[in-house]
Design goal:
Layout: H1 2-24, H2 26-49, H3 57-67
């Protein structure tokens, strides 16, 4: 029974420590999540164009210049 109480107290202490760490590092964690989402999106975009015909750099620049 004492072991269960210590375990519960330990769990609570860990939860509080993690919550404090997250609160103190909110901007850092937000940046990590944003980077992960961007990486996933880039990977999906690369998968979408896999097997598509290649385009030269010059062709890309022409399109970009006409859009500006």
């Amino acid at each position: 029974m004492a072991s269960t109480q210590i375990t519960d107290e330990f769990r609570q202490a860990i939860k509080e420590a993690v919550a404090e760490a997250i609160e103190g590092q909110a901007d850092f964690l937000r940046a990590i999540v944003e980077d992960v989402i961007e990486d996933i999106a880039l990977g999906r975009a690369m998968d979408d164009v896999a097997g598509a015909p290649e385009v030269s750099r010059a062709d890309v620049l022409i399109v970009l210049e006409t859009k500006l």
